Amino acid sequence: MQGSKLYVGNLKYSTTNDELKSLFDNYGRVVNVNILDGKGFGFVEMSSPDEADKAKDALDGQDFNGRILRVNEANPPGTRRDRDRNDRHRF
Description:
Blueprint: E1 5-9, H1 17-24, E2 30-36, E3 41-46, H2 49-59, E4 63-64, E5 67-68, E6 70-73, H3 79-88
């Protein structure tokens, strides 16, 4: 893994930043947590790529508050939009 920022999906809408931070604290130092309100996903930044990799490996596919987590390396901003736009123009 190159980066230390993780995408965390399939969260209950009631999940708080503090709850997510507590979960990820088990795998290293959490630098930042940002859950997008009403979206069911958020981002967790760990202090190193190695810690992010450990957290991803341990938590992806695990149950958290009755939901199966999806944890992946976060894409840089704009990457998804650019990819989607390029896909629409393929023939």
